[in-house]
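lol ok so funny story. i was supposed to be doing the assay writeup but got distracted and ended up predicting the structure for this chain instead. priorities right. anyway since i did it might as well share w the group, maybe its usefull for someone
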Amino acid sequence: YSLSYELNGGELENGGSNPTSYTIETATFTLLNPSKAGYDFMGWKLEGDETGAVSKTVRIAKGSIGNRKFIATYEAKTVKYKVIHKFMKTDGATYDDYKTDELNGKVDSYVTPAVLSGETIIGFTAPETQRVKLGTEDYATEVIYYYTRNQYRVNVTGTEADDGTVTTVDI
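and the output, tada:
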């Protein structure tokens, strides 16, 4: 009888393999479980099993019959990621770190961290939010938001007492 496997992106450790066939006379054996970076192995599901049962330990007993296909199932782990908020310095070219948020999300999921708003950013323009896919390890993903300093041009015109010179000041 044939045995087949759908590892869903996982792999068996140390180059291991599971049998691809067996007979009614084959001694009882246990399937090796796969692993997948950023995921917990939840178990094997037998294709065609209406119950959807999942088992971490699958034994094929001596005397068993029938072709079988096993499908590996996983659950994404929770990982930490950073959102760094940087504000433009008065030189208009460089940025200072203002605040770093440490957040959680599921591996391979997409997140859209919020930008700062309200009184926190008076005098600055907030950037557009970013949508990013989380990596498989803690802190593998960083989102950096750059807040630009609002700049204004002020024209000061002289009075009648002086020569009427116009002075422009950027602030």
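The mean pLDDT is 92. The chain is about 0% helix and 45% strand.
back to the writeup now i swear
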